[in-house]
Amino acid sequence: MPTTLPLLLLMGTWLFALGSVVGSFLNVCIYRIPWQKSVIWPASHCPKCWSAIAARDNVPIFGWLVLGGKCRTCRNPIAIRYPLIEALVGTLFVAIFIVDVVHGRRVWQGELPSWLFATWFYHAILIALLVASTFIDYDLYIIPDAITVTGMIVGVALGTAYPWIRPEPSTALTAWGGFWTGVAGLLVGACLTGAVRLLGSLAVGREAMGLGDVTLMAMIGAFLGWQAAVLAFFIGPFFGLAHALGKLVKYVAKRLSGAKSSSADREIPFGPYLSMGAVALVLSWPWLWDGWAKDLFHTLFVLFLWVTMGVEG
């Protein structure tokens, strides 16, 4: 269908609002899922006085602003992280709308095929799962299977029902093709991360990476395909570099001052940075794949053939 700029702006505004609502729900998931609590009941409440939050105060972002970041009942502060997560998800929903729909509209010369919105919805599900995983891992150094295993199932199932929905070159023509593409992405993501986890653990004599990182990469592969999973795994550490350097400085300062250090001073959660890598790929894939990633994988494939044939010879 033909579209105009005002209509696209209206859609973007609506999607930001939708994303903030999803972000509000993710706040509940982040708080409750690690403790195996229901995300539906009871209703949202103040974490200090446990009084229920009224519907008028539970409006994403604005509810927190109107209350000045404090509970209406006990006046204790409510963490700013809640509206920030709501704004983050809203912003990401708009960002993937720009990539999947607005950019797709240009490719289709002003037309707006309905399948572009299906692609947006597919990526929005992945974004929501990654946001929940990220903040749980930051808080507790765990990534619940309730998120990642569910994500694997959803990624494979949607890729089977809509085999064209994954990014190139992981698109497929048939349902079976979509199914096996999802399974391949899942296995490559899991095996790559699992192998690094095993080797790292053997090298340092302790667990180098959590099993949740393995299932997280499996979920990313199920959604995006094995090529994107490989790139996300190697891009992710660059997002974590600043955090790692900060931890290192803090650890060295404690050692020099004679203060006691704990394992928390030497550990960083890897899941958030894998998630950031995956989000970066979702937002850049239309340009990244044709720009250099396709040539990179082609070169690596040729090198692999050359090495294997050389060994056999």
UniProtKB/TrEMBL annotation:
Q: Where this protein primarily resides, as one coarse class?
A: membrane
**Per UniProt, what is one GO molecular function of this protein?**
aspartic-type endopeptidase activity
Which Pfam families has this protein been placed in? A24_N_bact, Peptidase_A24
Bilayer topology term: Multi-pass membrane protein
Keyword list (alphabetical) reads:
Cell membrane, Membrane, Transmembrane, Transmembrane helix
List residues traversing the bilayer.
80-102, 114-136, 142-165, 177-196, 216-249, 270-289, 295-311
Which superkingdom?
A: Bacteria
The yes or no answer to whether the keyword Translocase is present is no
A Gene Ontology biological process term? signal peptide processing
GO terms under cellular component: plasma membrane
Q: Where in the cell is it found?
A: Cell membrane
Domain Prepilin peptidase A24 N-terminal residues, every copy: 18-98
Q: Which residues form the Prepilin type IV endopeptidase peptidase domain?
A: 125-244
The family line of this record is: Belongs to the peptidase A24 family.
Looking up PANTHER family in the UniProt record yields: PREPILIN LEADER PEPTIDASE_N-METHYLTRANSFERASE-RELATED, TYPE 4 PREPILIN-LIKE PROTEINS LEADER PEPTIDE-PROCESSING ENZYME
The name this protein goes by in its record: Prepilin peptidase
The organism encoding this protein is Singulisphaera sp. Ch08
- Give the lineage: Bacteria, Pseudomonadati, Planctomycetota, Planctomycetia, Isosphaerales
